[in-house]
From TrEMBL:
Organism of this sequence: Actinocorallia herbida
Region Disordered: start-end pairs: 312-333
This protein's UniProt keywords: DNA-binding, Transcription, Transcription regulation
Keyword Methyltransferase found: no
Chain segments annotated as coiled-coil in the UniProt record: none
Protein name: AraC-like DNA-binding protein
Length: 333
């Protein structure tokens, strides 16, 4: 979903707060210095996500953006920003380094550390926020590349900048499938640019295969309760073929279907002995664990643990009596 910010549609007295609300809620928590005259506060932005990459294109007459030590302690997942200068100049300051950007230049900064962005002539940039675990950078690599200008004269940085610019311009027109297909090459190209700047392999501490593997495991865990969680859907969600999916899992020593089944069984066991267990029928536990029916769940559970789900729960919770199907009390909302 793409969101458009346009202060021309906002009353002058509300513009500063409207910008703050959008940026804090959709991009990152920062303090922004605006024009003192509310009538002259101006900003236009397009904000959205493309396959896990948050993209924010902004034109504004704001001058300074700060991520303060207090804001660094928010609950944002550790991420890096890549800023791409569209026109004019700006400065990225983090730690003891400062990068001066001209049109077409890139710079990286870390959301886990305070930073300042200076835009004396106003803001005209694309910002890309990428989770560190997706990018696969080691902490040392992140620290080594923050507030470093990546620009003209570096062919890999130029390729990355051109790709990111076109990705931002295509935002809102890409299908979900197209966005998923673009995620791996986008991350690979950016990591290549950073590795090139470092001059060694520190940025490659976590190769793309390992990043993809971690993303697949996380996706499965987040979608265990979905009966439609199939290898085809997992592959589709990550923009890879079934063959590639099985190869990645084999490289991790995982047989996908049995692993999903085991994860669902582990989830079911937690539900069976949860504090709210007395409100759940076996059918409800099966449904909330991603099994298509209570009968199928019971067969799989007994094969794995030697007891039916009902007997296993009664064994673990002496004195407990599993409610009969159709008499479940709905959980509190």
């Amino acid at each position: 979903m793409t969101f458009i910010l346009d202060t021309r549609e906002v009353a002058p007295s509300d513009r500063e707060e409207a910008i703050r609300e959008v940026i804090w809620g959709s991009v990152v928590r920062v303090e922004i210095d605006h024009h003192r005259d509310p009538e002259r506060i101006a900003a236009w932005g397009r904000i959205g996500d493309v396959a896990g990459v948050n993209i924010c294109t902004i034109r504004s007459n704001a001058t300074t953006i700060r991520r303060t030590p207090a804001l660094v302690n928010d609950d944002l997942e550790p991420s890096v920003f890549v800023s791409l200068q569209r026109s004019g100049t700006s400065a990225v300051i983090q730690g003891d380094r400062q990068a001066i950007l001209h049109a077409g230049d890139l710079a990286v900064y870390d959301t886990e550390q305070p930073y300042v962005l200076l835009n004396d002539g106003g803001i005209d940039l694309h910002y890309f926020r990428i989770r560190q675990r997706d990018l696969g950078l080691s902490p040392d690599a992140v620290a080594a590349v923050t507030a470093v200008r990546l620009g003209a004269g570096d062919p890999v940085a130029e390729l990355a900048a051109g790709h990111l610019r076109r990705l931002a311009e295509a935002q809102g027109r890409l299908t979900v499938r197209q966005a998923q297909l673009l995620a791996p090459p986008t991350l690979d190209l950016l990591r290549a640019a950073l590795t090139s700047v470092l001059g060694d392999d520190r940025a490659s501490a976590q190769p793309w295969g390992a990043v993809l593997e971690a993303r697949i495991f996380e996706f499965v865990r987040e979608n265990l309760t979905d009966h439609g969680l199939t290898p085809a859907r997992i592959a589709h969600a990550h923009g890879i073929s079934l063959r590639r999916l099985y190869a990645v899992m084999a490289g991790a020593g995982v047989n996908l279907a049995p692993w999903i089944r085991d994860q669902r069984l582990a989830h079911a066991r937690r539900l069976l002995i949860a504090p709210s267990a007395d409100r759940l029928t076996i059918e409800a536990v099966a449904r909330r664990s991603g099994f298509v029916s209570a009968a199928h769940f019971s067969r799989v559970f007994k094969t794995a643990y030697g007891l039916s789900p009902r007997d296993w729960r009664n064994d673990k919770l002496p004195g407990h009596r599993t409610p009969a199907a159709g008499r479940m009390t709905p959980p509190a909302r």
